[in-house]
Amino acid sequence: MKTLVSVIRVFVGLLVMALCAVFIGAVLLVLLPSRMARIRVCQLTGKNIAPFYVWLLGCRTTVHGAERLASGQPAIYVSNHTSPADIFIAGTYTPYWAVSVAKKQILYYPFLGLLYLLSGHLWIDRARTAAAAERLRRLGAFVQRNRLSIFLWPEGTRSRDGRLRPFKRGFVHLALQTGLPVVPFVVQGAQHNWDNGTLRIHPTDVRVDVLPAVDTSRWSVDDIDSAVEEVHAKFRATLPPEQLGPAA
């Protein structure tokens, strides 16, 4: 019975996403010449539809430090990544006018990939290092011009067992280019929501800790690894033991 309910939830989710892909996709095609207009449409859509998916997936979410999301100041939000639900949790709670950075594989998600491709947000192919670096450079310049925030998952790929993975260095390069502070967005418990490689979904308690912003003004290109470690250490200090240690 639980499996049937899970399948129904997934089917409903795909159906709603398909309808969004048709209607919102058509709007984005009309707005293709204006990246900022597409970002605004997608952010407004995401802020309204993401909570529905958090509910549909059965994520009972509590947020600690939510006041740090309401400052109105641009920032680089970095989060650990353990579940497909993370996308919708981020969409629900991060501020408007934040552009996201996702790996190329998001383009292969049914319907969501099409919307992401048209959205104006950034995707990178980590197998092509030079191209990924250039995309990040262009994103940094775009963010500076338009006073936007950035949201990304610096582990580079989703942890299969919920344990924290090492961070890639891209978020530090963006911080150096933009001068924006880094805000850790720490997610606990989401790894229990969706069994890997199946359609089984479990109602799950999820806790999000929005930590104080990290001042990046003292970071330098000569000390990038130390900057990565500084932020990674804040995640290690916040996550429970079951999400620490070598990740699968």
Could you explain the architecture of this structure?
It is a single chain. Helix 1 packs parallel to helix 4 (112-119). The protein has a single domain (2-243), classed as 3-Layer(aba) Sandwich (Glycerol-3-phosphate (1)-acyltransferase). The chain is globular, with a radius of gyration of 17 Å. Helix content is 44%, strand content 15%. It contains 7 helices and 7 strands, in the order ααββαβαβαβαββα. It is of the alpha/beta class. A 7-stranded mixed β-sheet has the order 1-7-6-2-5-3-4, with helices on both faces. The chain has helices at 2-30, 35-56, 85-93, 112-119, 129-146, 170-178, 224-238, and strands at 59-64, 76-79, 98-103, 122-124, 149-152, 182-188, 204-210. The model has no long low-confidence stretch (mean pLDDT 88).
Q: Which overall shape is indicated by the principal axes computed on the Cα atoms?
A: globular
How confident is the prediction overall: mean pLDDT?
88
**Rg, please?**
17 Å
Structural class: alpha/beta
User: Treating each run of at least 4 consecutive H or I residues as one helix, how many helices?
Assistant: 7
Strand content: 5-15%
CATH architecture: 3-Layer(aba) Sandwich
What characterizes the major β-sheet? 7 strands, mixed
The CATH homologous superfamily name equals: Glycerol-3-phosphate (1)-acyltransferase
Distance between the termini: 30 Å
CATH topology: Glycerol-3-phosphate (1)-acyltransferase
* N to C succession of SSEs: HHEEHEHEHEHEEH
CATH class identity: Alpha Beta
> Could you tell me the number of beta strands?
7
